Amino acid sequence: MLRLPRITVEVPVLAVGAKPADYEQLAAYTDGLRRPQGLHMTLLHIGMLEDFAADVAEWTKGTTDSAAAAVATVDWLRALPVLEGFSGTAERLVLLGGGRVSGLEVDVPQGVRDFQVSLVHALHELLDDLLVDNPDDFILSSRALGYRYPKWRPHVAVGKPKPQGHSGERRSREGGGSWEIRPLTVEFGPSQIRNWQLLPGSGDSLA
Question: Is the pLDDT of residue 171 over 50?
Answer without folding.
Answer: no
